[in-house]
């Protein structure tokens, strides 16, 4: 069985963060592991508080995974402070894992900040160069690239700027734009576009975490980058289409809809 590690924050409401990552790994048939960098008290409507795990404990969790099981891919999510970024970067350099997918999480779905504003330079200097794939949404890409994005051409321009910071591939996600949900992948040579019809729903909590984890899973399973993104795009679109109307805010996506529809529905009555 392929092995995938998520290094990210914990979402106690279960729709995003570590919880979404592990669900996504399981849905793809890979073995999921975690290194928790922050405990986030949040739900579908708001972020109540964040407690960061110490850099030493972050490093020890990663050591525990690599001294025993190892990985075929790594997904990195929420890193709120430069000290957390430095700890993760140190271990990624030490173990040199394949298929590192980094989701530069800056905001929760409800707009609450999950990364300290002053951490952007640390992200650029210590984390981005370690990514086989960076997956910013449009607001994140604007912050990192330092430009305003109004069009697909702007998304491509941002991808070029960000790739120049040292990562191998950039996927600028268009979920915050109008019209179809168009994502742009850039590998330094050419652009790939992935588009689906926009789904009219507020229940999109954890979509970024889910998407990046699905890409990591597909890379671990041996697919090349464009195919991994295409498969992950289909998976997250299906999860959004069957999102769960739970909570008072943006409800979670349905990570196991295909399993429930085609498997458990035959046994649960």
Short key terms for the protein model shown above:
single chain, 269 residues, alpha/beta, UDP-N-acetylmuramoyl-L-alanine:D-glutamate ligase, 9-stranded mixed β-sheet, 9 helices, 19% strand, globular, nucleotide-binding, Ribokinase-like, kinase
Short overview:
Belongs to the ThiD family. The chain is of the alpha/beta class.
Report on this structure:
Residues 11-254 form the Pyridoxamine kinase/Phosphomethylpyrimidine kinase domain. InterPro entries: HMP/HMP-P_kinase_dom, PM/HMP-P_kinase-1, Ribokinase-like. With 269 residues, this protein is an alpha/beta fold. It has one domain (3-262): Ribokinase (UDP-N-acetylmuramoyl-L-alanine:D-glutamate ligase). Helix content is 38%, strand content 19%. The chain contains nine helices and nine strands. Strands 3-2-1-4-5-6-7-8-9 form a nine-stranded mixed β-sheet, sandwiched between helices. Helix 4 (120-127) links the parallel strand 5 (100-102) and strand 6. The longest helix is centred in the last third of the chain and has 17 residues, at 225-241. The two termini are 31 Å apart.
């Amino acid at each position: 069985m392929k092995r995938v590690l998520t290094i990210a924050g914990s979402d106690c409401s279960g729709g995003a963060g570590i919880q979404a990552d592990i669900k996504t790994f399981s849905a793809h048939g890979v073995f999921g592991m975690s290194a928790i960098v922050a405990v986030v008290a949040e739900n579908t409507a708001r972020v109540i508080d964040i407690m960061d795990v110490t850099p030493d404990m972050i490093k020890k969790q990663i050591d525990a995974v690599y001294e025993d099981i190892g990985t075929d891919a790594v997904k990195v999510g929420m890193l709120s402070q430069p000290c957390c970024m430095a700890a993760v970067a140190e271990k990624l350099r030490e173990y040199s894992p394949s298929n590192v997918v980094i989701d530069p999480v800056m905001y929760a779905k409800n707009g609450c900040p999950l990364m300290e504003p002053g951490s952007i330079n640390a992200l650029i200097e210590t984390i981005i160069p370690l990514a086989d794939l960076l997956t910013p949404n449009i607001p994140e890409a604007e912050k990192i690239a330092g430009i305003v994005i109004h069009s697909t051409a702007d998304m491509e321009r941002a991808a070029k700027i960000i790739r120049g910071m040292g990562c191998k591939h950039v996927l600028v996600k268009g979920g915050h734009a109008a019209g179809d949900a168009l994502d742009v992948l850039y590998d330094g040579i050419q652009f790939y576009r992935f588009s689906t019809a926009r789904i009219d729903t507020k229940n999109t909590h954890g979509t970024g975490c889910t998407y990046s984890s699905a890409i990591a899973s597909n890379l671990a399973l041996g697919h090349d980058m464009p195919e991994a993104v295409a498969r992950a795009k289909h998976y997250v679109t299906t999860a959004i289409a069957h999102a769960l109307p739970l909570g008072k805010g943006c409800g979670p996506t349905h990570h196991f809809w295909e399993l429930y529809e085609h498997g458990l529905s035959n046994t649960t009555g």
